[in-house]
Amino acid sequence: MATVVLHQWEASPFCGKVRKVLNHKGIRFTVVNYNGLLALKAKRLSRLGKLPVVDFDGERVQDSTDIVVFLEQRVPEPAVFPAEPSQRALACLLEDWADESLYWFEAALRMTDAGARAKATDLLCAGRPAWERIPFSIVVRHMYSRKLQTQGLGKFPASSIRERLLTHLTYVDALLADSPWLVGHSKSIADIAVAAQLDEIVRTSTVGPSILEMPRIADWLARCA
Ligand SMILES: N[C@@H](CCC(=O)N[C@@H](CS)C(=O)NCC(=O)O)C(=O)O
User: Fold this and answer.
1) Residue 76: pLDDT above 90?
2) Which residue among 50, 66, 203 has the greatest number of ligand 1 atoms within 8 angstroms of its CB, and so is best to mutate?
3) CA atoms 184, 202, 98, 161: torsion sign
4) Is the pLDDT reported for residue 1 higher than 90?
5) Which domains does the chain have, with CATH numbers?
6) What separation in Å is there between the alpha carbon of 178 and the centre of ligand 1?
7) Which protein residues are within 6 Å of ligand 1, measured from CB?
C-alpha cells in the first residue's frame, strides 16, 4: 500500500477534486492542512506555489490535473478517464472548463458577496488562532480581486455573474438528462472536476439553494460526493 499525503486546503475545489479521485480509486491517504497563515508554507511546497500537492511514496506531484493523470497511471482501476477516445476528449475538456472557467465563478461569488467571503474565510482559517483571520482575509481579498479583474469575471456585476453561472448549469443539467454521468456511462474526471467546483459554490454562496433546486444536478452532486 502506497503512502500518500495530500497537502490541502479543505475548502479548495482543486483539493476537493483530488480527494474525490483518491476516494474513487480507494487510495488511502492522510492530509496536511495549510489553514490561516500556514498558507505561507504551502507556497514553498512546489514550483507552482499552489495547492493541491500530493506526495506519493515520496514522489511529489503538483497541480490537480497532473495529479489525476499521475494517480491514474499508478492506480489504473477504477479509471477516471474514459477508454473511448471521443468520451475521453470530452471528459478532459469538461475538466478544463471546470478548472479554468467554473472556478472563477466560485472565486467571484466569494468576492462579491460578503456572506460567502466570511463563510469561506471561516473554512480556510479553521483551527487557527482567531487573529490570523484579519491578515488572511486582507491578503486573500486583495489577491483574488486582482486575479478576477485580469481573468475578466471581476469586471461584471454580481447579478450578471450569478445569471451566467445558472445559464451554464442549465447546460450541465441537459447533459444529465439522458445519463446519470456527464460523459459516458460511468463516473469520470468530468463529473469529479465539475462537482468539486460546485460543491464549494453550494457550500458558501447564496446561489447554492438555486443550484440545489435543480433536481438532476442535486442528485448528481450527491452521487459525486
Ligand atoms: N491549476 C491548479 C490550480 C490550483 C489553485 O489555484 N489552487 C488555489 C487554491 S483553490 C491556490 O493554491 N491559490 C493560492 C495562490 O494562487 O497563490 C490546479 O489544478 O491544481
Assistant:
1) yes
2) 50
3) positive
4) no
5) 4-74 (3.40.30.10), 85-224 (1.20.1050.10)
6) 33
7) 12-14, 49-52, 63-65, 99
Reference 208, options 123, 110, 122; nearest CA is: 110
Question: How do residues 140-185 score in pLDDT, each as one tens digit?
Answer: 999 999 999 999 999 999 999 999 999 999 999 999 999 999 999 9
Q: What does pTM read for this prediction?
A: 0.96
Task: List, for residues 93-125, the tens digit of each pLDDT value.
Answer: 999 999 999 999 999 999 999 999 999 999 999
The alpha carbon of 147 and the centre of ligand 1 are apart by a number of angstroms equal to 12
Instruction: Calculate how far, in angstroms, residue 12's C-alpha sits from the geometric centre of ligand 1.
Output: 8
